[in-house]
Amino acid sequence: MAVPFTNHLACRWHRFAPALGASSLGQSRRLLHSLSRPLANSQGADKQQFDGEVAALYQKISVSHYHPDGPWNKMVEVTKMAVAPNITNGAGGRKVRILDLATGSGEPANLIARELPEAQMFATDVSQDMVEKAKVLMQDLKTIEYRILDMQDLSSLVPVAKAAAEEHFDVVTCCYGYMFPEDKLKSLRETWRVLKPGGTLVTTYWVEMPMMKMVKQVMGDVLRASGMSQEEIDSQPPPPMNPMALSEPGLFKRMLEDVGFEASTITLQESSYPLNFTADNKTQAGIGTMMIKAKLDELVQSGKLSNAHEVANESFFRRAPNWMEKGTGGELIIEGMRFCLAVAKKPA
Ligand SMILES: C[S@@+](CC[C@H](N)C(=O)[O-])C[C@H]1O[C@@H](n2cnc3c(N)ncnc32)[C@H](O)[C@@H]1O
Known about the structure:
It is a single chain. Helix 4 links the parallel strand 2 and strand 3 (120-125). The protein contains twelve helices and nine strands. The model is unreliable at 1-43 (pLDDT under 50). The chain has helices at residues 25-35, 53-62, 71-89, 109-115, 128-137, 184-194, 210-225, 230-234, 251-259, 281-289, 293-301, 308-323; strands spanning 2-4, 97-101, 120-125, 144-148, 169-175, 195-208, 267-276, 325-327, 332-345. It starts with a strand and ends with a strand. It is an alpha/beta fold. Strands 1, 2, 3, 4, 5, 6, 7, 8 and 9 form a nine-stranded mixed β-sheet that branches. The chain has a single domain, classed as Vaccinia Virus protein VP39 (Rossmann fold, 3-Layer(aba) Sandwich), CATH 3.40.50.150. Bound molecules: S-adenosylmethionine. The site of S-adenosylmethionine has 21 residues, from loops. S-adenosylmethionine binds at residues 45, 50, 62, 65, 101-104, 107, 125-127, 130, 150-152, 175-177, 180-181.
C-alpha cells in the first residue's frame, strides 16, 4: 500500500524535451525532418551510456515493466496474435523468427520466447553489459540467439543486398528503444527492411514521464551549484539519453508512415503504470540520477563541480516527496508513467 508524501499533482512542469516540444503540424514536420538525419551535436545516447552501473540500475527499475498495465505483457499478447497463423501452420516449414531490438536486460524477448518455444528469438542490444544480463535471464532457453548491434544497422542480421526471404523476421519487438539511437528514422527504416512482407512491428515509447520532470529539477540544482545562472539552466538541451524523445503527439505515427507502414495498419494504445525505485537508498538515488549520470561525470571530470553526484543525490531525496509516494516497505514509487504501445504491419 503506497502512502502519499504530499500532493505533487499541483506541480506543473513542461516536458523535458524542449527540442521536441513543437506543437503545430508544420513544426512537427520540421522536427520529423531533423530526426531523419544524424545531428552534429548528437541527439542519441552514447553507446556506452547503458553500460556498467547504468545497466545494473536499469535492470532494477525495469522490473516495474512486468506490471499488468505495463508494456511487456501487452507486447507478448500482440506478438502471440501476430504469429499465431504461422506457428499453427508451421510457417511454410520454416521457424517463426522474432527480433527483439534494444532488449536491455532481456525483455520482452524472455517472456515471448517462453510463450512461443517454437519460435527462433534474437535478443539484441548495442550495450554488451545489457546483453550479458539478458543471457543470464534466459540462460535456460535454447531458442535464443544474442547479438550486440546498433539498431541503425541490421545488415549483420539481414544483408542489405541479396537477403534470402527466410532471413527476414515475422515480428520485430522493441520496448523503449527507438528514442535512443542518434538517427531514429534510420532505425525504423532498418526495422521495415528486415521485416518480411506481412510482418509486424510491436513497440513502445514513453508519452508522459513525471520522473523526467523531477530529473530536470535535480539537474537544475546541480547546475546552479556549479555556478550557472537560471537563464543558462533554462536554455540547457535535454540530455542525450532522453526517453521522452518520441513523446510529441503524432510524431511516432508519422515516422512509421514515413518508413512505409500504412496508416490503416497502425494502432496506438496508451496505458500507465507506476515505477518502483526499490527500498534501497543507494539504488533509489542511482535510478533517480541515472539519466544525468554522464553529465554529472562530466562536471566532476572537468573540475566544475567535484561533488556533482552528492549534490544530485541530496536534491533527489529533498525533492522526492513532491513527486513520489512511499510504500510500506520504504520503496519509492512514482505514478503516472504513461507509454504508448504501437503496432504496425508491413503489407504482405
Ligand atoms: C530503456 S532500455 C529498454 C530495454 C528493454 N527493452 C526494456 O524494455 O526494459 C533501452 C535500451 O536501448 C539500448 N540502445 C540504445 N541505443 C541503441 C541502439 N542504437 N541500438 C540498439 N540498442 C540501443 C540500450 O542499450 C538499452 O538497453
